[in-house]
Design brief:
This is ATPase. Keywords: Plasmid. GO terms for molecular function: ATP hydrolysis activity. InterPro entries: AAA_22, P-loop_NTPase. Helix 2 (70-84) crosses helix 3. By secondary structure, the chain is of the alpha/beta class. A 10-stranded mixed sheet has the order 3-4-2-5-6-1-7-8-9-12, sandwiched between helices. A two-stranded antiparallel ribbon has the order 10-11. It is globular. It is built from 5 helices and 12 strands. The protein has helices at 19-27, 70-84, 105-113, 133-138, 150-160, and strands at 8-12, 33-36, 47-48, 60-63, 87-91, 119-125, 141-144, 174-179, 185-190, 193-195, 198-200, 208-210. It starts with 7 loop residues before the first strand and ends in a 13-residue tail after the last strand. It has a single domain, classed as P-loop containing nucleotide triphosphate hydrolases (Rossmann fold, 3-Layer(aba) Sandwich), CATH 3.40.50.300. The chain binds adenosine-5'-triphosphate (ATP) and magnesium ion (MG). Magnesium ion is lined by residues 19-20, 92.
């Protein structure tokens, strides 16, 4: 499984399924990342920058929005990232920014054209129906966890087809990975390891479990 920094990754699943854990595990493998940290839970993932405009001052930057309009702050953040290029935006609770009816200009630009300047976005949300359609249309990789209501699965089935049905039987921390280009799927599980007092996750081969036939040939290419 190869996921490139300039691609679009969407992690979906009900509350508490393990989306943030997976997003952190994926993000930790990136050399250059720009985290838009709505809930302030990625503080130890890089240098905290006081303004969105400074996000490119560090290869690993974290920006915590402080106003009641994070969408507007995301516009400034995205503008800065698009300007410097070659970074992956990490966006947890993405429904705050990619709302169905009003996606900002730069937020759209990231999805549609970000790859031309080396910019991708990896995001997570539990609000399937509250995420802009554009996100689903532009996604390269989906990690689908268990969903809360059948309506969510129906919506995803409309977009991606019956392949999403495989997500019905997942446990916490388990995801159905879908490569949108090939429509190949793979079931993965993130293992949490206790390290000292910190819990940390490593998406290396021995921490990720897969049940597909291609596992052996893909062993070196987790990310
Ligand atoms: N693979 C796993 N194995 C065991 N426990 C896990 C695993 N992944 C997550 N958890 C635990 O489940 C809880 C929820 O995880 P996490 O915060 O990642 O979920 P989430 O989907 O982001 O939830 P929310 O929708 O509330 O943001 C945490 O206590 C976490 O430690
Ligand atoms: Mg979360």
């Amino acid at each position: 499984m190869i996921i490139k920094g300039d691609e679009i990754v969407v992690i979906i699943g009900r509350k508490g399924h393990g989306k943030t854990t997976l997003l952190k595990a994926l993000a930790s493998q990136l050399q250059r990342r720009a985290i838009f940290d709505i809930l302030g839970s990625y503080r130890d993932f890089g240098a905290l920058v006081p303004t969105a405009a400074e996000v490119c001052a560090y290869d690993k930057a974290v920006y915590i929005p402080h106003s009641e309009a994070p969408e507007q702050e995301f516009e400034a953040f995205a503008a800065a990232v698009l300007q410097c290029g070659y970074r992956t935006i990490i966006l947890d609770e993405a429904h705050w920014i990619y709302r169905p009816k009003s996606v900002g200009k730069n937020a759209q630009f990231v999805l549609r054209l970000g790859r031309h300047v080396g910019v991708g976005i990896w995001m997570a949300t539990h609000r399937v129906l509250d995420l802009a359609k554009l996100v689903y249309q532009q996604a390269d990789h989906i990690f689908l966890g268990k969903l809360l209501v059948p309506r969510d699965l129906e919506e995803l089935r409309r977009i991606y087809g019956p392949v999403v049905n495989e997500a019905k039987e997942l446990d916490r921390g388990e995801f159905l990975y879908i490569n949108i280009e090939t429509m190949k799927t793979k079931r993965i599980k993130i293992f949490k390891r206790q390290v000292g007092t910190n819990r940390e996750v490593n998406l290396s081969n021995n921490n990720i479990e897969s049940n597909t036939k291609t596992e052996a040939e893909e062993e070196d290419d987790i990310l």
